[in-house]
Amino acid sequence: MSEPLLSVRDLRVSYQVGRNFVHAVDGASFDIPRGSITGLVGESGCGKTTVARALTRVIAENAAITGGQILFDGKDLAKIPEKEMNALRWRDIAFIPQSAMNSLDPVYTVEYQLDEVLRRRGGLGRKQSRARSEELFEMVGIDVNRLNDYPHQFSGGMRQRVAIALALALDPKLIIADEPVTALDVIVQRQILDQLKELQTRLGVSVILVTHDISVVAYICDRTVVMYAGKVAESGTMQAALTAPSHPYTMGLRNAFPDLQGAASGILTPIEGAPPNLASPPAGCRFKPRCPFALDICGTEPPVIDVAPDHPVLCHRANESAALRIEAAKTETWMAPA
Amino acid sequence: MKNFKAVGSRLLQLALVLWAVVTILFLMFRLMPGNPMAAYIDPTFTLEQQQQLMAQFGLDKPLWHQYLIYLGNLLQGELGQSFRYREPVGQRIWILLPNTLILTFSSLIVAYVFGILAGAYLAWRRGSWVEQAAIPLVLTTRAMPEFWLGMVMLAIFSFSLGWLPAGGTRAPGNEYSGFLDLYTSRDFLAHLALPAATLAIYSQGLPLLLMRSNMLDVMKEDFVTMARIKGLSNWTVVVRHAARNALLPVMTSFAIAVGYQLQGNVVVESVFSWPGLGRELVNAVAASDYPLAQGAFLMIALVVIFMNLAADLLYAFLDPRISHA
């Protein structure tokens, strides 16, 4: 495998809440290869959005990157000065937010907002900027005449397309899409995902798709990073995650979501319980309280085991995963967690 | 096309409000106790003379007839004769209104420009010592009654230091050839300084606190976060996105503040002997000069109604979500 575009190593991000520190991201490591589309999945509060935002270094006021490296194109984004980071934002790393309604400024036209990025960040002239805006609108399939419209005049799906056009404006190397289709209905979700995939393939840009919906990941991603309670449970190719999920949490997630392609995979089985409170996480494996395969050894910190090349798993029993998968496919297994 | 329709219906509403104000004014003065003519009719006048005088002012006719005459006159811009000055009310108001408007707008514009900038700045510097010191200070200025503040200003800058004149609009003996000549003279501006400063100090708290709290809300909006992720400069983020959006409700409050200010003027104009509508109104009521008081009230109501319309139109202009709705 060639040098990855982005390599996150032992990333730690903490929020200060009162006098306590919540370690929302507690030692996350993963790679994003060039030209790939990687799904970053996990439940609400698992730290996936925090990871996504940490990559841009625009994080909440009470949050801080407390450790680790974000190696991007030979630079450590966790360390470079703010000025250098700001020069890199949007030109190299763009962002597609969850709710395009709230993330477009309501008092300016869409063209103004494209123009702002193209001219202020891209250094384009007035005419070039207009031409590029039209080109971008054509790319995402919106009538060029609508450039002068305000955000509230677009439908939810259209706004998301505008957000994609904005993200593509400066030909970034990496696009982080934070729950880009969560607020949309399933039909529109699929249209937007298809478009995103098509543009990603055509332009060769790398995409990180943050979502709680593993079926969305299965639908368009070629890689996946599964997060649980601030840690990466498992990462690897989509193929590996679908055919050989090796962390019990990934196995559980697969049972809990319907297939976006419409193939009814039978009964959906939820994972009982809720993720731990990150202000005081349980000792050892964080998935232990909900894991049907937990043993006594799981009370100690689990190791990262490479079950296959490019397929690390954070689990004591990762080497037994083939046997566990058979058990995990049964609904009863998840009914009475150990 | 839609916009024209909206403006049209707004104007119709305005006409209705105006009619209601005019009617209430008419009834209010007729319901007040005491005979307004008492001050002008000498007890030695014969009954015939008294009646003649009443007839001259139209006070011998039934109420509904007086109302119709009143409406008819208003439509022609005729506000009647002042009992006290024995001159047309319109002419009197025409002299006083500019003084009031200049005082109101100059003080409010200063207050709002300062308030908006300071409010935005304090929101930006949230949690700093500047903010910690400034907020109680602003609250103090909000809590000071304007007549008291006016007297303190007079005591300091006029009586003690002697820097600025104490009252009126011009030094005695100074004559000016026209409006513009007077209002641009140093003399007038020196007289304007104290009352305008008093009103400005009293009024800046509202826009300042409003702007600050709006800014704090807007800074949490996703589009502000996105502007940062886009790598836009701090100035662009704070001014073009956060402040621009936070400004909307403040602009509306400006128009409403003009109405409040006209009430406030009654007090400040009295303290500074400023020959404006507010002071005249107080005098007219005290002297039972119905036509003049009516005219002054009407003028104030007109300005308030007009400013509300201006606020609506301005909001539609500033916020595309309104104009396209």
Report on the architecture of this protein.
Chain B: InterPro entries: BPD_transp_1_N, MetI-like, MetI-like_sf. Chain B: It is found in: Cell membrane. Chain A has 338 residues and is of the alpha/beta class. Chain A has one domain (6-92, 172-335): Rossmann fold (3-Layer(aba) Sandwich), CATH 3.40.50. Chain A has helices spanning 48-56, 82-88, 100-103, 110-121, 126-139, 156-168, 186-203, 214-220, 238-243, 248-256, 321-328, 331-335; strands at residues 6-17, 20-32, 37-41, 63-72, 75-76, 93-96, 174-178, 206-211, 223-228, 231-237, 304-308, 311-314. In chain A, the strands form three sheets. Chain A has a six-stranded mixed sheet, sandwiched between helices. In chain A, helix 5 packs across helix 6 (156-168) and helix 10 (248-256) packs parallel to helix 11 (321-328). Chain A is globular. Chain A starts with 5 loop residues before the first strand and ends with a helix. Chain B is an all-alpha fold and 325 residues long. The mean pLDDT of chain B is 82. Chain B folds into two domains: 2-75, no CATH class; 92-323, MetI-like (MetI-like fold, Orthogonal Bundle). Chain B is built from 14 helices and no strands. Chain B has helices spanning 2-31, 47-57, 63-75, 89-124, 129-143, 146-160, 179-183, 186-203, 205-219, 222-229, 234-271, 277-286, 290-318, 320-323. The two termini of chain B are 13 Å apart. The chains are: A alpha/beta (338), B mainly alpha (325).
Largest interface: A-B, 25 and 22 residues
Structural class of chain B: mainly alpha
Number of domains of chain B: 2
Task: Give the oligomeric state.
Answer: heterodimer
By CATH reckoning, the class of the largest domain in chain B would read: Mainly Alpha
The CATH class of chain A is identified as Alpha Beta
Helix content of chain B: over 70%
Low-confidence runs of at least 5 consecutive residues of chain A: none
Q: What share of the residues of chain B does DSSP label as strand, in percent?
A: under 5%
Distance between the termini of chain B: 13 Å
